[in-house]
Specification:
mainly alpha, 8 helices, 77% helix
């Protein structure tokens, strides 16, 4: 077995040396002398560069546009300010109207029911019934003072809690139904 291995090694050593091709000095090739893959890659790189340049120009153009939009005529700014002021004024009027309505309800309830109304309000507050939506729904129904007094009684607190947990629309419907029942 050693003889076979030695013979193979000797045969390989006795072979004529294989000439390696000499590298020619590198010259700058023109584009047409480049291999196809190199030309394709250079084309891809050029396309990417052009796309990036175009994207940069678009972004720069967009960055300049807001500056033009902020240069609105003074009239538009005044118009926006007036619209906003009107909205605030309307909200204040609605709030004042609501407060006046609640004051009227309380006045009428105290005249008609006295301490029973006060006790009903206290019971409702202890049960966590109230809130802006509940009060707005009460203000929109007929005889709200009677409904408050009715719901604030100990035997009706569970019904008040159930109604207070409804959506504003359903709450209004239920309170309207109770209005006729509470009047009796």
């Amino acid at each position: 077995m050693e003889d076979t291995a030695t013979t193979q090694i000797d045969a390989e050593l006795n072979q004529e040396p294989i000439e390696t091709p000499k590298e020619e000095p590198k010259q700058e090739n023109s584009y047409n002398e480049l291999p196809d893959w190199a030309r394709r890659r250079m084309g891809e790189l050029a396309a990417e560069k052009n796309a990036a340049k175009q994207k940069l120009e678009e972004l720069q153009a967009k960055a300049q546009q807001p500056e033009q939009n902020y240069a609105q005529p003074q009239e538009n700014i005044q118009e926006l300010a007036m619209t906003y002021a009107k909205q605030i004024a309307e909200q204040q009027v609605q709030q004042q109207s609501f407060v006046a309505k609640m004051t009227e309800i309380e006045k009428n309830a105290k005249e008609e029911f006295g301490d029973v109304y006060d006790k009903s309000v206290t019971n409702l507050q202890l049960a966590g019934v109230g809130g802006q939506e509940f009060l707005q729904a009460l203000a929109a129904i007929p005889s709200p003072e009677k409904v408050i007094t009715f719901l604030g009684k100990s035997e009706n607190i569970n019904e008040a809690i159930r109604i207070a947990n409804l959506s504003p629309l359903q709450m209004g419907v239920e309170l309207t139904k109770l209005s006729s029942k509470a009047t009796k």
